[in-house]
Amino acid sequence: MDPFQQMGDWKKNMDHFFGDQFWNEFEGIIKPTIPHVNVYKTDHEIFCVVSIPGLEDLHKVDIFVDYSTLELKGTIDIEPISGITVVKEEILQGVFERKVTLPFPVRADKMRATYRNGLIYIQLHRLISESSRKNKVNIELLDED
After folding, report:
1. What InterPro entries does this protein's entry cite (predicted)?
2. What confidence tens digit (pLDDT) does each residue in 99-120 have?
3. Cα–chain center distance at 86
4. What is the spatial distance between Cα 13 and Cα 1, in angstroms, rounded to a whole number?
5. Which end of the chain is more exposed for a tag (fewer CB within 10 A), N or C?
6. For residue range 12-22, what is the model confidence (pLDDT) as tens digits?
7. Does the structure show a pLDDT above 80 at 83?
8. Which of 3, 4, 29, 24 minimizes the C-alpha distance to 14?
9. How far from the centroid of its chain's Cα atoms is residue 13's Cα?
């Protein structure tokens, strides 16, 4: 059984007793978030770097972007080495579902994700809505009659 599942059940019982918002500040301590994500931005782009070690099948990770939210779903699976005993295990693994709020809305038609050396690199482009674009208005000279 997943030890984090037991902790989740324990947390639900405590939420019932203390209230739903009580444990929010402890979320990263009770179950550290995976995968780890770094988010960088320029004026017009967002770059996200997601740590997913040992990913051999790219279809085991789903990436969704909705306006200004990045959603990651999948599994981090590290193959055990047969015939050995684990002495220390710090690399978190298992099923994950994570939402990350982006610093600004992004375009749905310009997204790119690549994977190399255990990292997914996601490039997103800023959405500039039609209502906020500057449009140049030409001035016409009217004849004086």
Report:
1. A-crystallin/Hsp20_dom, HSP20-like_chaperone
2. 999 999 999 888 999 999 999 9
3. 30
4. 19
5. C
6. 776 667 665 55
7. yes
8. 24
9. 28
Contact yes or no for 119/35 (Cβ under 8 A): no
**What does the alpha-carbon distance between residue 62 and residue 53 come to, in Å, rounded to a whole number?**
15
Q: Rounded to two decimals, what is the model's pTM?
A: 0.68
State the DSSP code for 128.
-
Does pLDDT of 44 surpass 80? yes
CA-to-CA dists, residue 31 to 9, 51, 109, 113, angstroms: 12, 17, 34, 27
Residue 98 and residue 36: Cα distance in Å, rounded?
A: 10
Q: Domains of the chain (ranges plus CATH)?
A: 1-31 (no CATH), 32-128 (2.60.40.790)
40: left (phi over 0), alpha (psi -120 to 50) or beta: beta
* DSSP-assigned letter for residue 105: -
